[in-house]
Amino acid sequence: MTAITLKGVKKRYNKSLVVYGVDVEIEAGEFIVILGPSGCGKSTLLRMIAGLEEITDGEILIGDRVVNQLEPRERGCAMVFQNYALYPHMTVGKNIGYSLKVARVPKPERDARVMAVAKAVGLEALLDRRPGELSGGQRQRVAMARAMVREPKVFLFDEPFSNLDAKLRVAMRSEVRKLHRQLGVTSVFVTHDQTEAMTLADRLIIMNAGRVEQVGRPIEVYNNP
Ligand code: ADP
Ligand code: ADP
């Protein structure tokens, strides 16, 4: 089953194209990494899938629905950012549960779901803390829990581990792979780090200067640079 279909997806800022027309099909359950140098359009492509950026031309399908006109929250995707994007005045628990509160999920169900995802990422003892009292790794776990709590089918990661030290980055990669498998979701992960890409990806999308240069399994891409 296809989870995400990109058909001739383009993005123009002012007068110049930054994404030239991307055609890719992503299978349900795949872990896809978009790899390429800074400024090549990776983040823009991801943000178009999320609905945070309008597309200039083409079509994006999630499942069998064309989502071009849908709001981000209607797309069944959750995004995890490099800078965590947490609410500083809210506790960890409130940060994680906020989207459920907005969606008027009743308090008992909200509590149970917040606790379940907090446990899954090892945050259950920190629910009453504020983001400012947490380490970088813990903040990134909050960001992941907040994405998970809405039970999305698709996870979108925008260089989520770039601010973490090398050791933690390696640990978080295996956590993300584990959660991906446990939850049975489709993941699209943007990075400029080749090692990170090779470690995480079922398939790589190699981008350069706004174009997709290669799509394939790490071993295939590695053997045909
Ligand atoms: P990457 O994620 O690969 O680093 P981006 O998708 O962030 O690349 O950016 C691709 C190109 O689009 C860059 O040249 C960047 O300067 C440009 N760009 C990104 N956002 C905007 C914007 N809001 N307005 C104008 N240009 C932008
Ligand atoms: P609200 O009234 O917005 O739900 P709370 O501070 O009571 O505010 O809770 C916010 C979220 O944090 C809730 O969804 C709750 O599940 C979670 N939470 C906070 N502390 C705990 C805790 N000790 N055990 C379980 N869940 C907690």
UniProtKB/TrEMBL annotation:
Domain ABC transporter: residue ranges: 4-225
The keyword Flavoprotein is annotated on this UniProt entry: no
Membrane topology: Peripheral membrane protein
This protein's encoding gene: ugpC
Protein name, entry field: Sn-glycerol-3-phosphate ABC transporter ATP-binding protein UgpC
Family membership: Belongs to the ABC transporter superfamily.
Gene Ontology biological process terms in this record: carbohydrate transport
Keyword Nucleus part of the UniProt annotation: no
Keywords of this entry: ATP-binding, Cell membrane, Membrane, Nucleotide-binding, Translocase, Transport
GO cellular component terms attached to this protein's record: ATP-binding cassette (ABC) transporter complex, substrate-binding subunit-containing
GO molecular function: ABC-type transporter activity; ATP binding; ATP hydrolysis activity
Subcellular location: Cell inner membrane
Annotated source species: Paradevosia shaoguanensis
